[in-house]
Amino acid sequence: MEQFTVKQIDDLNEEELTQMVEESKREGFRFLDRLIRDYKNGSNAFDQRGESLWGVFDQDGQCVAIGGLNRDPYTNETSIGRLRRFYVSCTFRRMGLGTLLLRRIIHEANLHFHVLVLHTDTEQGDQFYTSFGFVQETRYPHSTHCLRLKSLWT
């Protein structure tokens, strides 16, 4: 696992994601396209309080997994974070990289939010997130799962 590094992405425009985006589209996922489009037009640059974008990079510096943390845009409550645009390249699945990335994002969420929410529509996603303690919950708009955080902020 030491051949992979989790690091914050400060400028998405500097990352080469073409292969990962094309792969995700072949799988029927369009959210990486949306990630890039929203970042470029400024509608979601992961630059608000508590927000960040993270990647897992291989030894060659290629991003093989990505995920973001936003203030939940579907509520006015500033204590709710949302996991966004979480994707692990097919070749690198079942290697623990999703776990590595999600742990880092949850750690970051703990610094800023009381609750972390997400939306998934796949059984694999449901199983993955519930293994981290997320529960199926429709209480939060446009969400399928939530995690109560041991928030470190006051």
From TrEMBL:
Keywords: Transferase. SUPFAM superfamilies: Acyl-CoA N-acyltransferases (Nat). Residues 7-153 form the N-acetyltransferase domain. The keyword Transferase applies. PROSITE patterns: GNAT (PS51186). InterPro entries: Acyl_CoA_acyltransferase, GNAT_dom, NAT_camello-type. One of its GO terms (molecular function) is N-acetyltransferase activity. Pfam families: Acetyltransf_7. This is Acetyltransferase (GNAT) domain-containing protein. It comes from Fictibacillus solisalsi.
